TrEMBL record:
PANTHER family membership: ACYLPYRUVASE, ACYLPYRUVASE FAHD1, MITOCHONDRIAL
Leader peptide range in chain numbering: none
Protein name (record): Acylpyruvase FAHD1, mitochondrial
Origin species: Hondaea fermentalgiana
Alphabetical GO biological process terms: oxaloacetate metabolic process
Family: Belongs to the FAH family.
SUPFAM superfamilies cross-referenced by the UniProt entry: FAH
GO molecular function, one term: acetylpyruvate hydrolase activity
Keywords carried by this UniProt record: Metal-binding
Domain (Fumarylacetoacetase-like C-terminal) ranges: 11-204
Pfam families: FAA_hydrolase
Cited Gene3D superfamilies: Fumarylacetoacetase-like, C-terminal domain
Amino acid sequence: MMRGFPCRPRTIAAIGRNYVEHAKELKNEAPKNPFWFLKPAGSLIEMPAPIELPQGVGEVHHEVELVVVMGSDKATRVPVDKAYDHVAGYAICIDITGRTLQSEAKEKRLPWSRAKGFDTFCPIGPFIPKDLVPDPAKLELWLAINGEERQRASVSNMVFNVPQLISAVTHSMTLERGDLILTGTPSGVGPMNPGDVVTYGVKGVNEEFDREMTFDVVKGPHVGMDTLASL
């Protein structure tokens, strides 16, 4: 059970390219419609657990994101104007990405699941009740590595806002209480390495939730292709 959350999610839907500047930095066009991929629930961790970087998979990048936490037992084909009725609250997470693996998958037109789904690849902060966030567009996200700021942006810069994302996802799949929508990352993504300390957070809630979250980055097991070939 995740502390403060309604329950552990069954589904984690992560939105891609939802900030124009981030799309540009990875040489992608901003999408005309929302699109998403799935992360396994097993990738979730909370403080003080460390982020484990798998060895043998190339660069691994940070992507700080606003998380929508679903609050209804069944959200199916939700209209945009009813979307907030299905929200329990919010959180801030890092959608950690094996960038080398993702780039290789894109070149081969293969799924991104491995690049996004390693254990510890979704460090998440505390649950923020919806009542404390009248308008998520007024929040500001930030992330720093070893005290150096890498990402900072207003949620208002998203291409598709929270109600549009909830509606789009639930027109394809039913979301349940506790399920998560990761709403995309702003520009400034970059590599993490063992020994780094990652801090991130949100501005615009209150003193309790505006405080930073800290995760140590450590070396994980070797899971490169040479390891897989020997199985």
